[in-house]
Amino acid sequence: MFFKGLTSSIIDMLQTIVLAVSIFMVSYLFLVQPHQVKGPSMLPNFNDGEYLLTEKVSYRLGEPKRGDVIIFEAPQNKRDDYIKRIIGLPGETVSVSSGKVYVNGKLLQESYLPADFKTQPGAFLTENLQYKIPDGQYFVLGDNRSHSLDSRALGPIKKKTIVGRAWLVYWPMNLTGFVPKVVYAGM
């Protein structure tokens, strides 16, 4: 009797462990994934060392939007992920002129940045170049333009490299909250 009860308890415990691991794996692979912000490229909105949850569902059901903060595979090393903000969508033109970003010839109003922030051109997107974003690709910039390796140097990113959308900051606890959605006036 003792061994029968012990065996039953062990089987129950194993079933619980297998169920918990299965739920975790499904969630991790298809729903949400933790990421850490590394470096200053998203200051002042995301700090080095912050942890956030990336949701992976919305881009399976719809398209990325301008202003979304996304996580994507780094072009140079697929094992690393970058966090940047979508500025330009497929088919649009993007340019940098006199420290400002323009989309389809209109000044991009970036309320999430300090007014004195300047956007310098890069090796890919040079000053006053009107670049048309190809289908299935997105133009991304870090919020801290002077310390960000982004589409100005690397070119646009492909949708298939996008891991998901930054959804929730969960560490440190004093910064816990949902990542705010950005709406661009006139775009």
Automatic annotation (TrEMBL):
The active site is at 41, 84. Residues 11-171 form the Peptidase S26 domain. Its EC number is 3.4.21.89. GO terms for molecular function: serine-type endopeptidase activity; signal peptidase activity. GO terms for cellular component: membrane. PROSITE patterns: SPASE_I_2, SPASE_I_3. It is found in: Membrane. Its main location: membrane. This is Signal peptidase I.
